[in-house]
Design a protein that fits this description.
Strand content: 15-25%
Low-confidence stretches: none
Number of domains: 1
Strand order of the largest sheet: 1-2
CATH architecture: 2-Layer Sandwich
Number of strands: 2
Order of helices and strands: EHEH
CATH class: Alpha Beta
Radius of gyration: 14 Å
Largest sheet: 2 strands, parallel
Helix content: 25-40%
Length: 73
């Protein structure tokens, strides 16, 4: 079923990561009606210098709902 992957720069605590994962899971269950037990969330910390090569290049532009307007290079 649905899986959400969050890629971001390092620096958040495990507690912060758990809170955002729980919030994303609640949104999926509340907005789309998925049962909570089928939604999974992963969070990956990526160094700034690896972010573009690791994340941006693996995404298909047509699947991006909101695109970052900030150049991170």
């Amino acid at each position: 079923m649905p899986h959400i992957t969050v890629s971001m720069f390092p620096g958040r605590t495990e507690e912060q990561k758990k809170k955002i994962a729980q919030a994303l899971k609640r949104t999926m269950t509340g907005e789309l009606g998925f049962p909570e037990e089928v939604v999974s969330v992963s969070i990956e910390d990526l160094a700034k210098e690896k972010f573009v090569d690791t994340v941006i290049h693996r995404l298909h532009k047509e699947n991006i709902v909101f695109e970052s307007s900030k150049n991170i290079k």
